[in-house]
Every structure is written in C-alpha cells, then in structure tokens.
Automatic annotation (TrEMBL):
Belongs to the NAD(P)-dependent epimerase/dehydratase family. Pfam families: Epimerase. This is NAD-dependent epimerase/dehydratase family protein. SUPFAM superfamilies: NAD(P)-binding Rossmann-fold domains. Residues 3-224 form the NAD-dependent epimerase/dehydratase domain. It comes from Streptomyces phaeoluteigriseus.
Length: 300
C-alpha cells in the first residue's frame, strides 16, 4: 500500500508518518512544503491540475492530509485549512478517485460546548473564530467530495514534541527556560477552560486504523481523550514534572495565551463512534502524554 502523507514534517504529520511506516506492506511517501518532502505540495497555493499531476506520479492508495495552520491571520488560515482540502479533493477526483482520503480536522469546528456534556459528530457546529471556521470549511469540502473519505476531528493533541504554538508545548518551554530558580515567575493567561486532550500517538493510531479499515467509513469521527480536563490541572501536572519551584501568576497582564480559551470554556468529545467504526480507543493517559512531552520520549 502506498500512503502519501501531506504535512509529514509537522507535529501531527511526523507522528502519523512514523506510525504508518510500522504497518506491514506499506510505503509512506512524504508531501508538503518542506524541502525534505519527496513530493513538494503547497496546498495553500497549488492549482488543482498541478496537484493532480503530482498525485498521478505518487500513485497513492491512500492520502492522509495532516497539513494545516493553527495560527496566523484569517487569510492564511483560509488558504491552508479551507482552500487546501478543497483543492486536494478536486485533484484526487481527477488523478486518484479510488484512493482513500483521511483528513485531520479539529474539535474547534464545534465551537463552545455545553458544560458536563460530550459533543457527538451529529452536533451543530458553531466555531468561535477563524481557525475553527476554516477547519470546518475544510471538513465540508472533504465530506461533500464524493471520495472514499473520512475526517478525524482531533481534540487538543499533547505528547512528545508538542510545539510552542499549542498550550502544552508553550508551558513546557516556559518551564524549561525557568529551570529550578525559586525566584522565577511564570506569567500565564486564563487557565479556567476545560479541554479534551489526546496523546498525539493515539491520534496517529487512529489514522492507521482509518487507513486500513475495510469499506466506507462514517464521514466524521471524533478523536479525543473523551473527557474534559481543566487547563489549570494540566499546568499543575507539568509544573510537578519540571520540579518548578517558582511562582505562577494567572491572568497576568500581557501574558501570552490563546484567544480561543475565553471564547470556548468547555470542550469535550464523545469518542464512541470511533470505537465502533475503527475499534479505536486512546491507550495513553494524560500523565503518559505529559511525561513523554517533558522527557522527549517518542519524538519522531
């Protein structure tokens, strides 16, 4: 089986590619904007007919789209998260209509959740900002494409190699910089939100199952931890791992933080459909994920 992984050098893409290489009888091909990509693809700019030629050369049995933008202005987000999947679907219909497409979406597509509830795939979507809105547009392009396709709506990934663009990676970076200085002060934003964290290695496992599952799959499947964790608790656990002896200031003036946190105070996914369709359940606990993040264990 030939599997083309777009965005294969990114955080999710690197873990996905590593997991897929372990599948027997597979050849994993890398695609993306990185010079290391065997198949150069910039979904934000490529024309459908150009991408179709690249896909024809790659001749994939499956395409996994891990390419996406989490930050930047609305135009950048739209180019990568909305236009990209639409162009990819158009090119696949032309060059490889029989290939399966596994696209990584985001739980941010749902928008604010109701406290003490888990959101299912059939829930109404009401994203709180450009990121969630553009990811939702990408999902719409995939589910309406007529291809053998599934969107995996991923919660908040955490684990080895987590980048500073996300909260766990950012907190870990601050703690590493602070060291064990008892006079150190971590100035953080609002930590009152609840998030559904999922180990990046479990995300990769879900992709592997989606690639190999027989027959058509549901159009959208939630991939998360299945429970809402206070962001404040995640910070406390990382602080203990780091042996941080300083002080934390929450809601500090000028502290870096996610604008989405205040708008989405509760996020939790129902992951039952993924268990039924793929036989998937997360196998790593949050403590496992944070220990691997802090220790660098399992980083591709």
């Amino acid at each position: 089986m030939r599997i083309l992984v777009l965005g294969h050098t990114g955080y999710l893409g690197a873990h996905v590619a590593e997991r897929l290489r372990a599948l027997p009888g597979t050849q994993v091909l890398g695609g993306g904007r990185s010079p290391a990509a065997g198949f150069p693809v910039d979904l934000a700019a490529v024309r459908p007919e150009q991408l179709a030629k690249t896909l024809a050369t790659a001749a994939p049995d499956t395409v996994v789209n891990c390419a996406g933008a989490t930050g930047g202005d609305a135009v950048t987000l739209a180019e990568v998260n909305a236009r990209g999947p639409a162009v990819l679907c158009a090119a696949l219909r032309s060059a490889a209509p029989a290939a399966r497409l596994v696209h990584l979406g985001s739980a941010a597509e749902y928008g604010p959740g109701a406290v003490d509830s888990r959101v299912t795939e059939s829930a109404a979507t009401s994203p709180a900002g450009p990121y969630g809105a553009t990811k939702l547009a990408g999902t719409a392009a995939v589910t309406a494409s007529g291809l053998d396709a599934v969107v995996l709506r991923v919660g908040n990934p955490v684990g080895p190699g987590a980048p500073a663009s996300g909260l766990p990676g950012r907190i870990a970076g601050l703690l590493r910089a602070a060291g064990t200085d008892p006079e150190a002060v971590l100035r953080l934003g609002d930590l009152s939100a609840f998030r559904d964290f999922v180990d990046v290695r479990d995300v990769a496992g879900a992709v592997a199952l989606a690639v190999t599952a027989p027959g058509p799959l549901p159009p959208v499947l939630n991939i998360g931890g299945g429970r809402a964790v206070p962001v404040r608790e995640l910070v406390r656990r990382l602080v203990r791992l780091a042996g941080f002896a300083g002080r934390i200031e929450e809601n500090a003036a000028g502290a870096a933080g996610s604008a989405r946190s205040a708008e989405v105070s509760w996020q939790c996914s129902d992951i039952g459909a993924a268990a039924r369709a793929l036989g998937w359940r997360p196998v790593h606990s949050l403590d496992d994920a944070l220990a691997a993040l802090w220790g660098g264990e399992g980083t591709p």
